[in-house]
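Bug #2210: token dump truncated for Peptidase aspartic putative domain-containing protein?
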Amino acid sequence: MSGQCPIHKKPHPLLKCRAFLSMPLEERKACLMENRLCFRCMATSDHVARNCKVSVKCAECGSVRHNTALHVDQAFFRDTQVTKGDNGGEQNSSSVTSKCTEICGDNLGGRSCSKVCQVKVYTQRKEHEAIKVYAVLDEQSNRSLAKPQLFDALGITSTTTPYTLRTCSGIMETAGRRANNLMISSIDDKVKFHLPALIECEMIPDDRQEIPTPDIANHFSHLKPIANKIPPVDPQVQILLLLGRDVLRAHKVREHINGPHDAPYAQRLDLGWVIVGRSVFGHIPPTKHHNVFKTSVYSNGRTSLMEPCSNMIQVKERLTRVRRVA
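Reproduced locally. Full output below:
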């Protein structure tokens, strides 16, 4: 199959195939493996790379051990020009460009998505007063928490009770309201179920950069089929809820899309589809400045220059005794 493109079955080599060059590196490797093509010349299945006699040289780093198409930095392919008449039957196009800037914004390291869903929360028998919020699904937390804004929006006026909050950054004594008899539903109202008692907590992770978007799904071929199942980010909806292990149904995976090793993966939960992983491939530019502003102290007394992880949350309620008067 020398010179034959295994993707289009046309007489153009892979090095001139726009579809192949636009793939992430892991998908290009997978394509070569599936078609048993030589990783060196990428033109035949008659031999493997260690027996390949073809002279190759990477145009990016000058290496003679791999082809340019397998160089880890994709900057070369963002501006690769494909000339007319050299496409072996593919539709003509002037260039292949990367959309990474659009989905990553100013974050040079790319967006790192986590399990965040847009949901509706309401009190029983008051579904018409449902509040839209983003919920963080965190199996590292033993209790479900909600920010004060959600308590206020639902009109919950219960008295505050003390509890102990333990995170990677330490242990603190705090207090908050309790909310019972609440319901949660997916944004399309197809799934509804009861929530356990929510505890008021201000320290819920609220990084909006971690919210999955349709653009991120469209950026990866294996996630494109679910792009229309992920709602666009609503700037009016806040991250006000954290669902811990006390609501196991929310964490059950109903469907799973894996993809290449280093690519983001997707899961269908009862509350909707989520994407987990970093949304950028290729070379990540190094930062020019590194500053240390403080030394952190972990709960065991160990000091560190690294910022403690705030995503592990353990809650221990403190029960108060009530004296009865006979």
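Output looks complete on our side. The chain has two domains: 14-98, 112-278. Marking as cannot-reproduce; reopen if the truncation happens again.
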